[in-house]
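can u pls check wat happens w/ magnesium ion
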Amino acid sequence: MTSSGGIAIEGVSMQFGGSQGVTALDGIDLNISGGEFVAIVGPSGCGKSTLLRIVGGLLEPTSGHVYVGGKTSGQARRDVEFGFVFQQPTLFPWLRVLGNVLLPDRVLGRRNPNNGPNSKDIAQELLRDVGLEGFEDHYPGQISGGMQQRVALARALSYGPNTLLMDEPFGALDEFTRDRLNLQLLEVCNKTGSTVLFVTHSIQEAIFLADRVVMLSPRPGRITRVAEVPFPKPRTLEIRYEPGFAALAGELRGLLVGDDDIELAMNQP
Ligand SMILES: Nc1ncnc2c1ncn2[C@@H]1O[C@H](COP(=O)(O)OP(=O)(O)OP(=O)(O)O)[C@@H](O)[C@H]1O
Ligand SMILES: [Mg+2]
């Protein structure tokens, strides 16, 4: 088990559909410190979402254990310690932006540590942090996809979760919007001190955001590499042009595509 706020993943394997079924994950061991930002990268179908669901207490692994701040993941979920952000923002279209951010407060009631007379102030501050001041009264249908995703992030943070679990949250966005949200995410995490587990297909995004990047093999997902990202925080987008960034990106991409394809992959943006 790790100290408070950290995540310990111990020998986690996941088999769907019994012994003849699909092995999604095989023997995952990973310790994440409290406040650390870890990105998970791997090919489609290698078990990234499955791992996130196991850590978040939404799915029991076939074998192994996960502890979050010393609790089982199921207990941590019941104690409302996770904020989830998925690829689609899943907002309620009939609620305004502020109403969507306040929804966990309404649903969780007394279980929400931020609940109280100032929960609306907290929601408004979070909307400011993600650059949505002035849009509190808009409906989701009246704002862009990137703005909707920022609402989802503000909502996930609204009840002060220790741990943010993010599953390709910016995958559907254009590059410029993604860059802006990456910067905002780092700023918000710096402020909240949340532990973050962030799934992405983008090696560049993983290196830019994370303290460590975890590479998974094709299914069954196994850890092939845990790379420390050598750039101090706070970061600016310019670090992507540093030689060390390109070298690390090339090395990690080589793990995904295999040695034969590495030259081809290195030439891709
Ligand atoms: N509930 C389920 N029942 C049966 N098989 C499942 C279930 N959930 C996932 N799988 C299988 O487990 C494997 C891993 O799925 P998972 O969604 O974790 O992959 P992923 O790495 O997130 O992929 P992607 O990058 O495409 O989102 C896949 O083969 C998938 O079909
Ligand atoms: Mg997935």
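The chain has a mean pLDDT of 89.
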